[in-house]
Specification:
Number of helices: 20
GO molecular function: UDP-glucosyltransferase activity
Protein name: Glycosyltransferase
Keywords: Glycosyltransferase, Transferase
Family: Belongs to the UDP-glycosyltransferase family.
EC number: 2.4.1.-
Helix content: 40-55%
């Protein structure tokens, strides 16, 4: 009898140094690990991120013995960054681009790691799955003769970022600095037009000479030259985005493999959500999940507004004040994850002076608002029946978590592709109302109140909830399997197709 364990090869995974990206990659690694327990997965990052990943890997209910962690040396001080800055969630906004540029210096160490793996195992890894931002990984993959796949968030937001960055359609070609107020985005349908106000704030000033544009154009071009893409999305909910992304990728495959969320969320079994919520992020919450659930249990169904701007985003101090006043005027119950305003150090202690005088005391007394410092158990909150809407920065992880639970969104995008995610949910899906665009946008308490009431009361809110519920069903169906392990959902079939294609490739050296 042959007792030798099957060997399905080796996959290298390499996310960008941002918590949202690392969270998505870790979820993908665990998903692949479950479906192919005999495939080795090496998860690559810098030392401080690896330390956090060790916590996230060991705190869940499932053991993933086939996932190992590999460190690449990185000294933030060498790049003019604050000490111990290896993740965007620990950086003030003015340093984000500096970390992005510095991440390209990881290439020699990454090349050495791949060479060492090949020498030790006497074979080439089946593939490298790299962040869409790390286009330079393509050169490494070509050098050693392996496949390079890019892992990206939503299709629509990615396709928009790629097309706008590559072609700068909001700029005139006459050398002037004039902007085109309304323009067509290349690769999207001819009738599809955007206004300048719908672009992410930082993209509006972009020119072909801007350092960020030059950097991203190079990385995007390399990524589009990869052997295919893995998209953390669902075929049935992102029709336009996937059609456009496949046009950009020409004949190469784009696999939809999402949403990469805890299975208990998608199966209605939520008793273990708090365990998975911590293991998904590796973060310590500012409130225990039990306390949060107890507070939600005392609220009426769909009556609570959840407010969070993600792991590295913040609104300005004046806007924080207006948001608080608008919340109070609306009279809605809410959970608000508080982080220092964008003008202040994100790691500093939150000060009550950033909120209206007496606001904290009034919320505590009325029990209308639950104020949480730094981190909240987001999965537990969004999956609770009392949560009726989510005021979000529209980062893709948060977007999928909300849509998977049928929770409509109030959009306040603050960076990256978030403005496009918000736009898609509003115009393509009908499950979002935009409140503002950018941390410095002028927002009044009256406007905050109006949008909250629009989404949580009246006919528009009811229509949004119906559409969000339909999308939640499509998301759940995409990850569903028939009894006996036979795949049913489109995303499950897609990830198995991807794994079949890469595990059939073994190159011995």
């Amino acid at each position: 009898m042959n007792t030798q364990q099957q060997d399905d090869g080796h996959i290298i995974m390499f996310p960008y140094l941002a918590q949202g990206h690392i969270t998505g990659f870790l979820a993908l690694a665990k998903f692949i690990s479950q479906r192919k327990p005999n495939i080795k997965i090496t998860f690559v990052s810098t030392p401080l991120n690896i330390r956090r990943l060790q916590s996230a890997l060991t705190s869940g209910t499932t053991i993933h013995n086939n996932i190992c962690l590999a460190e690449l040396p990185f000294s933030s001080a060498d790049h003019g960054l604050p000490p111990n800055s290896e993740n965007t969630d620990s950086l003030p906004p003015q340093f984000i681009l500096k970390l992005l540029y510095a991440s390209e210096t990881l290439k020699p160490s990454f090349d050495n790691l791949i060479t060492e793996i090949i020498t030790n195992e006497k074979r080439v890894p089946n593939c490298i799955i790299a962040d869409g931002i790390f286009g330079w990984v393509h050169d490494t993959a070509k050098r050693v003769g392996t496949l390079h796949f890019a892992f990206i968030p939503g299709a629509y937001g990615t396709a928009m970022i790629y097309s706008v960055t590559l072609y700068l359609p909001h700029r005139k070609n006459d050398g002037s600095s004039d902007l085109i107020e309304e323009f067509h985005v290349p690769n999207f349908p001819d009738s599809y037009r955007l206004r300048i106000s719908q672009l992410p704030v930082l993209m509006r000033a972009d020119t072909k000479e801007s350092p960020p544009v030059k950097f991203f154009q190079k990385q995007i071009s390399l990524t589009l030259g990869s052997d295919g893409m893995l998209c953390d999305s669902v075929e049935e909910i992102e029709v336009l985005g996937l059609e456009t992304l496949r046009k950009l990728m020409e004949s190469k495959p784009v696999w939809t493999i999402g949403p990469l969320l805890p299975s208990c969320l998608l199966q209605g079994n939520k008793k273990n959500v708090s365990v998975v919520s911590h293991s998904r992020t590796g973060k310590e919450f500012g409130i225990s999940p039990e306390s949060c659930i107890e507070w939600l249990n005392h609220q009426k169904p769909s009556s609570v507004l959840y407010i969070s701007f993600g792991s590295e985003s913040a609104i300005s101090a004046p806007n924080m004040m207006e948001l608080a006043l608008g919340l109070e005027k609306s009279g809605k119950s809410f959970i608000w994850v508080l982080r220092p305003p964008s003008e202040f150090d994100s790691k500093s202690e939150f000060k009550s002076e950033w909120l209206p005088e007496g606001f904290v005391e009034r919320m505590n007394e009325s029990k209308k608002g639950l104020l949480v410092k730094q981190w909240a158990p987001q999965l537990e909150i969004l999956s609770h029946q009392s949560t009726g809407a989510f005021l979000s920065h529209c980062g893709w992880n948060s977007t999928l978590e909300s849509l998977s639970q049928g929770v409509p969104i109030i959009g306040w995008p603050l960076g990256a592709e978030q403005a496009f995610n918000s736009l898609m949910m509003e115009e393509e899906m009908g499950v979002c109302v935009g409140l503002a665009n950018g941390s410095e946008a002028e927002v009044s308490s009256e406007h905050v109140q109006k949008v909250i009431e629009q989404v949580m009361d009246g006919s528009k809110g009811e229509e949004m909830l119906k559409k969000a519920t339909v999308i939640a069903e499509k998301i759940c169906d995409a990850m569903r399997e028939d009894e006996g392990g036979h795949q049913k959902g489109s995303s499950v079939r897609s990830v198995d197709d991807f794994l079949a294609s890469v595990t059939s490739k073994k190159v011995v050296v």
